[in-house]
Design brief:
The protein is mostly helical. The protein is built from 12 helices and 4 strands; from the N terminus they run ααααβββααααβαααα. Helix 1 packs antiparallel against helix 8 and helix 1 packs across helix 9. The N and C termini lie far apart (38 Å). It is a multi-pass membrane protein.
């Protein structure tokens, strides 16, 4: 592999890793507070992408369509918590896990019945599909925008967590929900904020994914969601910074494996999970796992 090809794959890896990172933040925040692996999170990403698609095709400006997708994903995420998870707050964790899997199947099949399983072409505005050439490097504008937005969102999320009273409440809930309730904090409202924030990021990740791979379908969140979850585990689930780091590592790994071993491109998903297993053999709590034990998020 020559240097220009390496740089090309580096840029592609940053773009793919950014999408995993955005979705992984939602996984890690919900787990950090409720110790729940929200397997429906990848499908909420799908909801955001679908609503953006419908709004844009109905004639709305793309920015407005994205806001519609984000708002729809937030509503679905918060309602999922209120209807499916809240009644099980005091139930064994396995009940929450099974419920999350059920919600995932429900959303996938609901969209499959309503809109069909045939993939739909996602046409982004021209200004997001322009391509620049830097020497022999092929540079779509989206691969610059996506990592930039991801880093900006990470900074914003960390600011909310460490510089606002809501962030303080979220971090307190992550340690001890009953005690926080005794102090007069409305825990359910704070948990709703966590779901809203995670769902909004998932919707943005879904739109980015649809721009990069211009096709959407009701099952688009299954593999992407699993990889984002793997990224959260790789970085140290419960750590926002770790989720972003894990997303970038997983994205780079997936792209580089295909670039270095093109004949094994069909196994790129297997390589991504094999890398996760390899890392966890040496760091069972993930890359940021030790910090997680001292302070969540």
């Amino acid at each position: 592999m020559d240097f220009s090809t390496f740089l090309q794959q580096l840029v592609n890896g940053a773009s793919l890793g950014s999408m995993y990172a955005l979705i992984a933040i939602g996984y890690t925040m919900v787990y950090g507070v409720l110790r729940l692996i929200n397997f429906a999170h990848g499908d909420i990403m799908m909801v955001g992408a679908f609503l953006t698609y419908f709004a844009y095709n109905a004639g709305a400006p793309f920015s407005v369509a994205v806001l519609v997708g984000i708002l729809g994903a937030v509503i679905v995420g918060v309602l999922t918590d209120k209807i499916a998870y809240k009644p099980l707050r005091d139930a064994p964790k396995i009940s929450l896990l099974i419920t999350a899997i059920g919600i995932s199947f429900f959303l996938e099949n609901l969209f499959n019945v309503l809109f069909g399983g045939v993939p739909r072409a996602f046409k982004a505005p021209e200004y997001l599909t322009k391509v620049f050439h830097w020497g022999s490097i092929y540079l779509p504008i989206s691969v610059i925008i996506i990592p930039t937005v991801t880093v900006a969102i990470l900074v914003a999320v960390l600011w909310v967590l460490y510089r606002t009273k809501y962030g303080m409440a979220i971090r307190a809930l992550a340690f001890d929900i009953p005690t926080v309730k005794l102090m007069g904090v409305n825990a359910d409202s704070i948990i709703s904020i966590v779901f809203a924030l995670g769902s909004a990021l998932a919707a943005i990740g879904g739109v980015f994914y649809a721009i990069s791979y211009p096709s959407i379908d009701p099952l688009m969140g299954v593999m992407v969601g699993l990889k984002a979850f793997a990224a959260a585990v790789l970085g140290g689930i419960g750590s926002v910074t770790g989720a972003v780091l894990g997303g970038f590592i997983l994205g780079f790994t997936e792209i580089m494996v295909v670039a270095i071993f093109p004949e094994l491109g069909g196994y790129k998903d297997a390589f991504a999970f094999f890398f996760l297993i390899l890392v966890l053999l040496f760091r069972p709590t993930g890359i940021m796992g030790e910090d997680l034990e001292r302070s969540r998020f």
